[in-house]
Amino acid sequence: MKREVLSAVRIENMGATGKALARHNDMVVFVEGAIPGDIVDVDVRKKKKSFWEGRVKQLVQGSEDRKEASCQHFTLCGGCKWQNVRYEAQLQYKQQQVVDNLVRLAKVDPGQINDIVPSAQELQYRNKLEYTFSNWRWFTKEEVDSGKELNKCGVGFHLPGQFDKIIDIEECLLQGGPSNKIRNLIREYALSNALGFYDIKKHEGFLRNLIVRTANTGEVMVILQVGRNEEENIRKTLDYVLEKVPEVTCAYYVVNGKKNDTFFDLEVVHYGGKPYIAEKMVNPSGEGHLHYRVGPKSFYQTNSLQAEVLYKIAWEYAGLQGDEIVYDLFTGTGTIANYVAGNAQKVVGIEYVPEAIEDARINSSINSINNTVFFAGDMKDILTTEFMEQEGHPNVIITDPPRAGMHADVCERLLHSGAEKIVYVSCNPATQARDIGLLDSRYFVEKVQPVDMFPHTPHVENVILLRLRE
């Protein structure tokens, strides 16, 4: 059936998911591939009761905020949706996203929201990238039209909306260091030695996934995930990488026979080099550095340079005088806990992943920090009245939950914690605003500071200072 095409539609705004917003006869239309100020013909793909969805069929007139994308894979890859948008305009959209969510959901006065802090780097800002091997790679129109025999195997990112198709990446501009070299070398080696690329439909094959982590100290970690325990091929592949890329200081592999790529429940085997990479961060006092060990299962902010900005804001909002008990919820590898420990009496860190808690303890040790304690487990199960009586009632709580935000039970515990301040760090303003609403009966919003951690994407980080009502 022929789809409806809307002619000369003016794009009005940008949605939180990165899709642009327009109106047609009072119907909201979300348009993929457009930016505010564009006039476009829209190919309508879905019609729902309250909104439609479509894609740009033709650009009639470009917005003043439109620019040429830097990446050769931009038209296919969904990783950097806003790379064709001026960076200053991206910041405006993210600022508005924070304002809209807090005003609409948490009833916050927009005058309390500071201007967003831009990222110092627009490209090569990520310290971690994950690539997928597949024997079902996507062919571009140029490749199909060439008439040449094409190899179906590739390594790169999933085509948006298609779990079984991979964009074969030649160069990704998101990560610096030897990231592109490592990926391309493994691809060439695998094709030359007839190593099997994973078949996501049949769930079989050898090469499955590659993670490259780079640190601001210059250290590099490689994690190779395979579908079968072919010991000789694992050894030869990793030996080849270690020989050809001397920058790699740490190599691991995972044998994963599951139907998904997550490996937090699997053994990660240390193959070569050091068992970790090291990140460093300027001490909040401005004197010296804090050092963090990052293991294969560790969470660390993926924009190292901007993470320092983010944590400095959280530290300033906490306003520690040296005699406070601080709780750091969702502590990960203890980055925030150790960052603020020098200005607190005691810091209590809680995290779900046991391996991350082990890293947090090590990070305290290597920085000669002895006033931190860490606990592993489900937040809503650990953070009880009895726990706070045992470890001391918090004066300040810093919380940095995942995108889903905090469980309602955790919000309830915070309400009755008695903490004078809550510093809420979030990568999702919508769930953050929802949680702020749950805390509103006892805590009011004093300050809000958006931070751009992920240029060319719709994602935005946000720090809120909540203070206990009189």
Into which percent range does the helicity of residues fall? 10-25%
Give the CA-CA distance, first to last residue.
Answer: 63 Å
> Structural class, judged by helices and strands?
alpha/beta
Instruction: Characterize the largest beta sheet: strand count, sense, and whether it forms a barrel.
Output: 7 strands, mixed
- Beta-strand percent range: 25-35%
* Unreliable spans: none
Strand order of the largest sheet: 8-7-6-9-10-11-12
Lay out the secondary structure:
Layout: E1 5-14, E2 20-24, E3 27-32, E4 39-47, E5 51-61, H1 87-105, E6 128-134, H2 141-146, E7 154-159, E8 162-168, H3 179-192, E9 207-214, E10 220-226, H4 231-244, E11 248-255, E12 269-273, E13 277-282, E14 289-294, H5 304-318, E15 325-329, H6 335-340, E16 346-351, H7 354-366, E17 372-376, H8 379-382, H9 385-391, E18 396-399, H10 408-415, E19 421-426, H11 429-439, E20 443-451, E21 461-468
Parallel strand pairs: 3-5, 10-11, 15-16, 15-18, 16-17, 18-19
Antiparallel strand pairs: 1-2, 1-4, 2-3, 4-5, 6-7, 6-9, 7-8, 9-10, 11-12, 13-14, 19-21, 20-21
Any descriptors?
470 residues; alpha/beta; 7-stranded mixed β-sheet; 11 helices; 31% strand
